[in-house]
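Morning run. Coffee first, then this:
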Amino acid sequence: MQKILLYIFFICFSSFCLAQNNEIDSLKLIISRSRDDTSKVNSLLQLSKAYMSSFPETAISFGIEALHLAQKIKYKSGTAYALKNIGMVYYNQTKYVETFDYWYQSYLLFDSLGDRINEALLLNNLGSVYMNQGDDPKALEYYFKSLQIAEQSKDNHKIALAMGNIGGVYSNNRFTYDKALESYFKALQLSEKLEEKNIVGGLLVNICEMYMKDN
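And here it is:
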């Protein structure tokens, strides 16, 4: 069971794919008729997301196009989102050096903009890069930074994500199983209140795994 609770998940059903194709056609039409402005950047970002799960190289291409345009017109928020999108594609490809580079740049921009929501998300995702590479101390460092910002912002969704991931790191060491369960249960309590069913399901599986390990 995947313990890492990244913010972005992609589920593709046939009806969804049809709607997605229509969206892609509409976005391409909008872009072809748009001037070089923030609206065009946002459309390019949407197009990048639409291709992310099926055609990663195309997603990167549109992400880079959005990045260059956002930089050209000095659209900082668009630049940060473009970096975030590109990093997500590389993460899905397990290219962690590239992932970290793009996500860290995105984090710095969101930080400069005072965007606490995305700042917490990027720190959480940076922690996941380290966790996937087996560097638990660095993963915890970033997860706790994410948790701190989420708590300051009183954002229970981000708190639950960070706590769930902290539990995932602690579950890797039998000497910290108690901390893992404590983190999981805190995340579970918040997720249940928020009715985050996907996160609740994942946490319940992880908690069951912890009890099985401890027996």
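The chain is about 80% helix and 0% strand. Good start to the day.
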